[in-house]
Amino acid sequence: MADKFQNKYRITSARLQTWDYRWQGAYFITICMKNKSHYFGKVINNKMELTNVGVLADVFWHEIKNHSKNITLGEFIVMPKHIHGILIINADPDDIPNSPDLNEIMDEFMDDSNSDYDANAIHNPIAETRHALSLADAHENSDANENSDMHENTNANQNTIPPTSIGQNRLRNPGKNSISSIIGGYKSAVTKHANRLKLDFGWQTRFYDHVIRDENAFNTISNYIKNNPKKWGEDKFRS
């Protein structure tokens, strides 16, 4: 009976299991709205017109650098029902156990991942992986299913990951200044202030992230974010 319960409610993380999300690097983040609602505003003449909730989402994103250690913000945009942003962790390797050389970990990543990775990262820069902020949220599948059209890619051969892998430990305890803790704090801040102002609003439980591999991918994703309002009619998040 216990096995059936675990299998029913267990959701395997699609994130890169050998990657610690406190490590130095650039991360492309996408967070969507609950029920695909257009809480944040409208695109008018290729520009975003923000609602009050949209203003909160914008202001608190730019506050992240003031509340999280060693964080630099890249391109960011608030769209009608999602946000895109780049977070750059400038971590001191001495502060994080087992912090690897970026080139070495990416070489291992490429060995374990499928050969389509580069094409997906460059030509379809929507976040490649999905993550729930806590295991307690694992049974809340409805929000995630609303984004079933988003591409999900398991970046490593999970059959080779031992039970005490970094990825599994990260799910149990995301740790301070990790991508999970930063995004969790951001979402909570926006929600808290929206509730105080009695504004209708809700996030999806999960967010999407993508480890940006190189300068070419960084520039491509930055341009994608910057031009999002101009291409709203073509955006897969619109419907």
Overall description:
Helices cover 35% and strands 20% of the residues. The protein is α+β, with helices and mostly antiparallel strands. It has one domain (11-232): 2-Layer Sandwich (Alpha-Beta Plaits), CATH 3.30.70. The strands form two sheets. It has a five-stranded antiparallel beta sheet, sandwiched between helices. A two-stranded antiparallel sheet has the order 2-3. A hairpin with a 2-residue loop joins β2 and β3 (47-50). The protein is globular, with a radius of gyration of 18 Å. The termini are far apart. Residues 1-15 and 108-173 have low confidence and may be disordered.
Index terms:
two-stranded antiparallel sheet, Alpha-Beta Plaits, five-stranded antiparallel sheet, Transposase, alpha+beta, 239 residues, Transposase_17
